[in-house]
């Protein structure tokens, strides 16, 4: 007999949430809880440059990456849009 239970807890503060669940059989059970900021767990927020010097460096870095990598979006055989680059390592932000 398999017992499956999923529970979602929402904290009092809207910017955080907890998701948990348990899975088990007779005499054995395993539970896990993830606590974190609300939103997509796979999206990482990148801090934006604050000073003018940081903004200038970021703009120059982006310009170099775009001129080297020349990203193009094309659909694959399944119709899924994918990025294609003109140089190796561009999908990981490599500049040289």
Features:
96 residues; 5 strands; alpha+beta; 1 helix; 3-stranded antiparallel β-sheet; two-stranded antiparallel ribbon; single chain
What can you see in these coordinates?
The protein has 96 residues and is of the alpha+beta class. The protein has two domains: 2-37, no CATH class; 52-92, no CATH class. 19% of the residues lie in helices and 39% in strands. It is built from one helix and five strands, in the order βββαββ. It has one helix at residues 52-69; strands at 2-10, 16-25, 28-37, 72-75, 81-84. The protein has a three-stranded antiparallel sheet with strand order 1-2-3, with no helix packed on it. A two-stranded antiparallel ribbon has the order 4-5. A hairpin with a 5-residue loop joins strand 4 and strand 5 (81-84).
Quick overview of this protein structure:
This protein has one helix spanning 52-69; strands at residues 2-10, 16-25, 28-37, 72-75, 81-84. The protein is of the alpha+beta class and 96 residues long.
């Amino acid at each position: 007999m398999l017992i499956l239970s999923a529970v979602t807890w929402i904290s009092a503060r809207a910017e955080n949430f907890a998701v948990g669940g348990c899975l088990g059989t007779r005499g054995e059970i395993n539970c896990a809880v993830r606590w974190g900021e609300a939103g997509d767990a796979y999206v990482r927020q990148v801090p934006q440059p604050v000073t003018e010097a940081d903004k200038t460096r970021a703009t120059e870095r982006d310009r170099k990456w775009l001129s080297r990598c020349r990203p193009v979006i094309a659909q694959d055989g399944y119709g899924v849009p994918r990025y294609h680059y003109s140089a190796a390592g561009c999908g990981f932000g490599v500049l040289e």
